[in-house]
Amino acid sequence: MELIFSAALCSVLVSILLKIAKNKGYDALQMITWNYAIASVLGYLWFKPDFAHISIAQTPWWLIVVLGMVLPSIFLCLAKSLHTVGILKTEIAQRLSVVLSLFAAYFFFQEQFNLLKIIGVVLGIGAVLCLIVSKSTSDVSPTTKQGIFYLLSVWMGYALVDILLKYTSSLGLQFAVTLNLMFIFAFVCSVLYLLFKKAQWQTKNILAGAVLGILNFANIALYVKAHILLKDSPAVVFAGMNILVVLFGVIAGLLIFKEKLKGLTVLGLIFGLVGVVCLALAI
């Protein structure tokens, strides 16, 4: 359980760092770029991918390239969502991306739905709707509209990444190799975009990106290790990770960033947590 706790803590620390950095004038995209550079190095050292036996012909490069572009884009949307709607709602939306992943599993991967999965999906959608309505009814300013857009982008974007990763694993590509190639492509794509935008590189963004990369990779590595050690209890890992991240996000939002819990936000939080428990029990 310590691994799940640590992985969840690292996940929320990523969000906290992005939110604080934005308020301090750091460039989120530069941080995200160097995050992938550090993560690729750590991934190579930790997972020890076997690059020597990669099949050039059979490797789905198009998929890795797509993920390499999507990952930094969604990470940037995460940073924007944290800044506009707060850490509490963003973490809930990110964790409830599993609802859309389940839809894909049903329609594309022929996964069967039982009653608990249906209840979990319905509660998850209800939770996201509560988060959106709680923001839009209190304020209809351009900032709020942007916040809703970024919130939905996080929800749908992380589901897309999950679906693509599932598809990649179904092709038989080794996880360690896939992870490293994705990180490398994400770094290359981000650098090219920053060069195109003629960004002013700053050392502080590189250093902050290195910290972000360590936390982001630690989150992934600890989560994977938890699944390996608890291979007979995937529901414990899944539910524990999602629930702890949401709870840590609530604590961070209330205590660190002084966010307020409105009625619909509380309802969305309850729907989200119950939905996650239902999905975990359905595994």
From TrEMBL:
The chain crosses the membrane at residues 6-21, 28-47, 59-80, 92-109, 115-135, 147-165, 171-194, 206-224, 236-257, 264-282. It comes from the Bacteria. It is a multi-pass membrane protein. It is found in: Membrane. Residues 3-132, 147-279 form the EamA domain. Keywords: Membrane, Transmembrane, Transmembrane helix. This is DMT family transporter. It comes from Acinetobacter piscicola.
